[in-house]
Write a structure and sequence with these properties.
Length: about 525
């Protein structure tokens, strides 16, 4: 096993296997050790999957679930096909995210094997990228699909010497499956493969016309998903959550830089933020050695250049909101970084230098993993309080969620009331997912809603809430209970007909009087 150039053998073949085992453990243990994960959108995914597998409850009056090909189905497919038959929805969500974490490492190792023609230990540095912004946002279907797209990219490059028509046939099912798992995961494969093919055209020189014809034949599997996207764009009805597309502000562009290491939640410890910053610094310094011609340095595999550049352009050019889907701009930078790690190898390394490189990356990776575990431990303890409060809710209740904090982790916690209390919440995702709201309740639901700041609801002098119509318009009559994510001030509820049913930690449950 080699981590440097072909003349410097530093490791024995079994070392990669041992390193892989430890890297996977470091990646998955913070995900598996505690009952709840501090991921913003994850409660919504858990609620939807619970509804899909549990017909015949009080939730039938509010929700329906009919699986449809929406290009955003990775988690639901695995849950319906396997997960619901072997475990509960909470455990399944952890197993799914652990699968993503392990797969990201393995896909980088496989891609590196194809690009360099040998097994390397350096691709395990993608451990620094596992806990990224899309992960903490809880973009479940997307992050599950990304490693599969990287496996497919590895296969695409591996088979580029195959007859174009045979390559096209082989990739038809691959492309369709990845497209259905998540459309943005499909974009990862499409753009990175396109980058490789453009680079091959440059390499072909005067033979570029003949090469272009072969590329067009190979690209045929991508035409159906692309055509479907175009057809939906021009013929489909507007999304339930809107069809806005905008490039975004300067802040959205800055988010691109920090997204591979972003914690998202305000509860992220300073130590976790520090290790994220350290991860960024060491990777930047490592990639700066690409400019060196001798000594300790990274060397780029030629076949990796096109995919990396294409993903870099995608990361910069993609809108922050695409057809109503938000935070699109933060989804691709960590993928580009993973491909860059897989596409490079260390050269000019002696044993002492190799040990130092390994130790620096290992210490930061372990430190980041331990910090994530501590964050998950705090969040799980917090969610135990929420579970106790939800125990006071009768089945079929309609919860109106308000929050006291500005922490994004509080946006969707009310979704846990669906599996824990069979209660209605107005903010479950629909439109891009297979969940439907019964017609009678459309007026008190939002396709991509979140809990409301309490001051907007209870401060009578505040005109913000009344300025825009929504599920809150007549909340005192449309809902049966108020779930407070944070302890409400007595002055806030004094003028409302609310009866406190339970309080645990920072959570409160009120019954709305008749």
């Amino acid at each position: 096993m080699i981590i440097a150039d072909d003349q410097t053998r530093l490791l024995k073949p079994w070392c990669l296997g041992v390193a892989m085992v430890f890297a996977v453990l470091i990646a998955v243990l913070p995900i598996l050790l505690h009952p709840y994960l501090p991921l913003v959108d994850l409660p919504n995914h858990i609620a939807r999957q619970y509804i899909a597998a549990n017909p015949g409850t009080a939730l039938d009056a509010y929700y329906g679930y009919t699986f449809a090909m929406k290009g955003n189905s990775a988690g639901d497919l695995l849950w319906l096909a396997v997960g619901q038959h072997i475990t509960d929805v909470y455990t399944f969500s952890k197993l799914l995210m652990a699968l993503y974490a392990a797969n990201l490492l393995l896909s980088a190792v496989v891609l590196a094997r194809v690009l360099h023609g040998r097994w390397l230990i350096w691709p395990l540095a993608t451990l620094l990228l596992v806990f990224n912004g899309p992960f903490f946002w809880g973009f479940q279907n997307f992050v599950i699909t990304v490693p599969l797209a990287l496996y497919a990219l590895a296969a695409w490059i591996h088979y580029e010497g195959t007859r174009p028509w045979l390559r096209a046939i082989l990739f038809i099912p691959v492309v369709i499956v990845i497209f259905e798992l998540h459309i943005l995961g499909f974009i990862v494969l499409l753009v990175s493969a396109f980058g490789r093919e453009v680079h091959r055209l440059f390499e072909a020189g005067r033979r570029w016309r003949q090469q272009l014809l072969q590329h067009c034949i190979s690209a045929l599997p991508f035409l159906f998903p692309i055509g479907l996207i175009v057809w939906r764009t021009f013929t489909a009805a507007p999304n339930d959550y809107g069809d806005i597309t905008r490039y975004g502000s300067l802040r959205a562009r800055i988010d691109i830089l920090r997204s591979p290491f972003d914690v998202v939640s305000n509860d992220g410890s300073a130590v976790l933020e520090l290790f994220g910053t350290m991860s960024l610094i060491v990777l930047v310094f490592a990639f700066l050695t690409l400019r060196k011609k001798s000594g300790l340095r990274l060397v780029l595999a030629p076949r990796a250049l096109g995919p990396i550049l294409a993903l870099a352009v995608l990361s910069v050019a993609v809108p922050s909101v695409l057809d109503g889907v938000a935070y699109v701009q933060i989804r691709f930078p960590f993928v580009m970084a993973a491909v860059a790690i897989a596409g490079t190898s260390w050269h000019g390394v002696d044993r002492r230098q190799a040990l130092w490189v390994f130790l620096v990356f290992a210490v930061i990776a372990v430190g980041r993993s331990v910090s994530v575990e501590q964050l998950a431990a705090r969040h799980s303890a917090d969610m135990q309080d929420l579970s106790l409060v939800l125990a006071d809710v009768p089945e079929g209740a309609r919860l109106f969620p308000v929050r006291m904090s500005s922490d994004r982790i509080d946006w969707h916690l009310q979704a846990y009331a669906v599996p824990q209390a069979n209660a209605f919440v107005p903010t479950l995702f629909r439109g891009a997912h297979a969940l439907q709201i019964e017609e009678a309740w459309h007026h008190i639901a939002a396709a991509q809603g979140k809990s409301l700041p309490a001051f907007m609801v209870f401060d009578e002098s505040n005109e913000t809430l009344g300025a825009v119509s929504g599920f809150w318009d007549n909340w005192e009559n449309d809902f049966t209970h108020v779930l407070a994510l944070g302890n409400l001030d007595e002055e806030m509820v004094a003028s409302s007909d609310l009866l406190l049913l339970g309080r645990q930690g920072r959570y409160e449950m009120y019954e709305i009087g008749s």
